[in-house]
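Catalogue entry: protein

Sequence with per-residue tokens
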Amino acid sequence: MNKVQASLSKIELLAVYFSYVVRYIYPLILVPYYGRVLGSSGYAVVLAGMSLSSTIWLCVDFGFSTIGGRDIVHTESTGERDAIFRNQVTARLLLCIPGVIIGAIAACRSEIISSVAGVSFFVVVGGLLNAFNLGWYFTSTGRPRTSVMIEMLGLLLSLTLLFSFIRKPADIDRVFPVIFASNLAQTALAYWLVRKEYTGVIAPLRAAVNLVKRSSTIFIYSGTAVLVLAASTYILSLLASPSDVSAFGLSERLVSAALSIMAPASQILAPKVMYLVTRNEARANLIARRTFAIFFLGAIAGVIVTELFSEWIIPLLFGPEFRHAIPILNIMILVVPLAVCTRVLGMYFLIPRKLEKLLAWSGVVGAVVNLAAAIPLASYWGAAGMVMARLLAEGSLVAMLVIGSWRAGLIREILGVGEGFSWQTRFGRWLE
């Protein structure tokens, strides 16, 4: 089994990014296809269902992936990894019980989701299945390319099935069964590849409950700010029209696709930063700052391009029926630079130092701001109101993380004050 190395590999990082091209092309192909084939109202069903499915996923995952990855990078024997693996699976199985109950109630409460036969079932079971994804395990054991290749195969299978079975608005009831079949094949392949690395999937109940307790702080962060954001489209489906849902959901999907560009880097860099924090903290901080600079500049470029060309790109890709989404997207894109700040601070500075409580409190504030603003704003202004609530939440989250980092004494490390790196080292060889 591979072990995370302290040194960075340009080839490894570029290989992962090359593999992820399929992941980026996937939404760029699929979102316009949904919009043109299913229409605005049909696509609203897809967006609301995916929002609820993602919410169930986050609830059942409960921050386990982050804790599991951090635990495994510090292990030395296969026996330790086996215990971690079994604890992870058992804890997820435990949380499937409330996941099913919450998911079923939420699906029934949404008229948009429940209006199509069979969608509620596959939305719920699809969210549960996604929570058992093994990407965290492959990454933390030094095999990010394996994880990416499995995901690529799953996306290609999903595209093939969707293009084969979804060809007219009446096919809306086939969308979620097709996505579920693709995810099931992807998950089965992942578990088959690691079948010799664990002795079983059931751990003692006490160990699983202990993992739930250890992950609770992470979940407060991901299960408040991130969870509320993931559920935004579903919440809007309860408060506004299908037209507003499609406009907001389309914008959110495009913004999420932009932010997913950070995923390959985090698969390679985050475990190495966690490893280096206890061995060479200055080097870990340097990697984190370089990562922030690259993605923040990219986010600013994305904002500029969107503001300049959205009026031309949206009708071209999605059809004239989606022109109403243009002003929503032009506001929503401002979320990207704010989200880059929160993700880098959390993943590369706070979690490696086990400062999950700071993340938790920041997440709670962000969630409270989002919910407090979303309900009145979305009720009155629809999609535009939900976007304003999202921006307020992201801004609050950034402010809380910066203040918390300052109080924890991390500002000097974040800025690199007194670490002795030359300007050439800081900006010359970014991925050395």
Remarks:
- Residues 21-61 form the longest helix (41 residues).
- The radius of gyration is 21 Å.
- Residues 47 and 60 are 20 Å apart (CA to CA).
